[in-house]
Amino acid sequence: MSGAHRILSTFSIAAYDPEVRAWGVAVQSRFLASGWIVPWARAEVGAVATQARANPTFGPRGLELMARGRSATDTLEELLSEDSSIEGRQVGLVDRSGEAAAFTGPACNTWAGHRVGEGSTCQGNILAGPGVVEEMHRYHGTSRGQLADRLVEALRAGQEAGGDRRGQQSAAVLVVQEGEGYGGFDDRYVDLRVDDATEPIEELHRILQRFKITFHKTTRFDVVPWGPEREQAAVDILSRSGSVGAGDIPRSRRELQGVLFEVSRRRGIADPELDSGIDGRLWRLLGEMR
To answer: Would strands 113-117 and 120-124 be described as parallel, antiparallel, or unpaired?
Structure first.
């Protein structure tokens, strides 16, 4: 079977965050560079995941239809009506209002199926069993945090439930939010891919955290509350890493805030939150310095 017609054995999630009006897709597959084919999203329009015997035109076509005002359900019906080989396709969509819809063709390799919820849809094929999409759905419905984090954690939950029967190879996460791309010039809030790795979800998680440290401002989900144990842990890390000398070890929270601000400045973390707690970007960086 040629590479162009390989089955995209995959599990993915497409979701909408109404609080910040963000749309996204995350995917893991035993397939090289699944982020090249599966995830599609457009700010203020929706998101599409296309997989199995994937028809990549479902991405731009689905977004075009939803941009014209079609719901996810109506868009799905039109996509299916336009494809003569739909039996082997799998697709999930979420529209601008958070309505989700999905389809799993009867010719998709077992186990294959989907789970549609409020504001999200999880789907997969050649999986260990239905528990994969059920765990993804459960996790996404109960988790907090930025959409990108929740999507990647949903992949982790699916992998822990058995994941793709054939193993792992690639993963990706795409999140769009109007005006929240680099420098405010576009809408790509997060657009990351791991094209070929032994543990692609873990690598994607690592890159996402580095990406947030480097490019994102702090959200309310990313502030780690102050506390005596956490403050002491930060002091210990700063001391062991050589970030402060023996005579400069902070003795109070105010002194610690000053040191952490300088560490943030040197590491390129813009406008760190240090009043209500430790900026989550900085806290993750401290974790890497342990």
So the answer is: antiparallel
Query: Among 3-12, 62-71, 163-172, 274-283, which stretch is predicted with the lowest mean pLDDT?
Result: 3-12
Q: How many domains does the chain have?
A: 2
- Burial state string for 236-263 with b = 16 or more CB within 10 A and e = fewer than 16: ebbeeeebbeeeeebeeeeebbebbeeb
Neighbour count for residue 138 (Cβ, 10 Å): 17
Of 192, 215, 238, the residue at which a domain comes to its end is 215
Q: Which residue has 């999203």 as its token pair?
A: 41
Q: How far is CA 171 from the centre of its chain?
A: 10
- Cα separation, 93 vs 76, in Å, equals 8
Of residues 267 and 84, the one with the higher pLDDT is 84
Assess whether 269 and 203 both reside in one domain.
Answer: no
The β-bridge partners of 124 are: 11, 113
Is residue 159 within 8 A of residue 27, CB to CB? The reply is: no
Please state, in angstroms and rounded to a whole number, the distance separating the CA atoms of residues 56 and 78: 15
Domain final residue, candidates 186, 215, 244:
215
Residue 5 has a pLDDT of 58
| 277 and 210 in a common domain | no
Q: C-alpha angle 202/203/208, rounded to 5°?
A: 100
Which structure tokens are listed for 46? 């929706």
Say yes or no: 77 and 158 in one domain.
Answer: yes
Q: Which amino acid is at 273?
A: E
